Amino acid sequence: MKTAFSYLYRKMLKQNALTLAGVVLLLTLASLLEAGSIIGVAPILDLFIHPDLQHVSGITSTLARWLRAIGVPVSMVSAMGCFLGLVLIKNLISAASRFVLTTVHFRLMRTMVVDVFQTFLGARWQFFVANNYGVLGN
Question: Whole-prediction pTM value?
Answer without folding.
Answer: 0.68
